[in-house]
Amino acid sequence: MLIIILLILQSIPIRSTIKIEKKNNSQKFNEVCQTLKSSQANRSDILLIGSTMKRFIIITKNFDVYDLENNNLNLKIDQIFLLGSKPIALNLKYPKLFRDANFQQLKRSILNAFVFIGDRREFLCFTGRTESVTITEQSYTSLCYDLNNDVIEKRRLFAGEQFEIPISTDLQNVLYEIRRENQSLALIEYQIRMKNRQTRQGPIRSISSHKLMCLTMDQRIVLTQSSNCEHPITHSIYQGFVVRNRFYLFGDNGVMIFSQRSIKNSEPTALIEKTFDSFFNCPHHSLHNLAKLIEDGCGL
Predict the structure, then answer these.
(1) What is the CATH classification number for the domain harbouring 236?
(2) Which residues lie across from 166 on neighbouring strands?
(3) What are the pLDDT digits (tens) for 207-252?
(4) Which run of H or of E encompasses 36?
(5) Contact call for residues 115 and 109 (beta carbons, < 8 A)
(6) Of 52, 53, 114, 137, which is the most exposed, with the fewest CB atoms less than 10 Å away?
(7) Phi, psi of 162, rounded to the nearest 5 degrees
(8) Among 46-55, 138-147, 183-192, 279-288, which stretch is predicted with the lowest mean pLDDT?
(9) How many CB atoms lie within 10 A of CB 116?
(10) Considering only CA atoms, which of 85, 100, 153, 86 is closest in space to residue 124?
(11) Count of structural domains, the chain
């Protein structure tokens, strides 16, 4: 009988520890998500956000990775659902990338990152400053991780301007860029070819003119080649992506959403603005899931 009692007593701390660990993990996952919802998420927490052909990827500056189904982005209400999604540390999600010596050197000075879809391959690309002293074309480099083949490649994708913000897109061989020009923001479309692993990336070919981002009197957005922009968009853009013909740009005022067609036809189009809090849908403890949380050992 004494042996049985001792065994029962020994089992209680173990179960309690498991419950505490589950609760701590759940709390940590929710804290990561909550940082995306904060008003400063665009500036301080999101390193990369964009879509591959089948997945939607978010990487924070703490190197936590959300690998989501594409349908986690609801276009009807313009919201990303992170319910049931757990971030994974980059060293566990992409161990070869994380262990790479070039990435270890670059990750301390990453300026921007983006998703790029090539003809047959998909990449996570990170651009940072090299050890060059002067700000020249040689002072910036991009490291691209081939998701399909688990291969890491060095690429030179930008001229090296710190204020160039790459915008991931779900189109093949296309990359957008935000650039500040004369106190206004310009949107540029590039075509990039990554032919094979042995061939270095050639010059970037612009396939559309620089277009200024302007507002009309009725608060629609228009992208125009004309220098006559009475109401230019001047606030900073830090990150963004294009998916299913819609731009999502993260800036000082939250998330700007508008049709991709605006870059082709230069006609005013509707502009939707959302806060980060309303754009990212995080897990929360509610009466609806309280019983499940307690069952899993995550309840209070």
Answers:
(1) 2.110.10
(2) 177
(3) 766 788 999 999 999 998 877 788 898 888 889 999 999 999 998 8
(4) helix 2-37
(5) no
(6) 53
(7) -65, -30
(8) 279-288
(9) 24
(10) 153
(11) 1
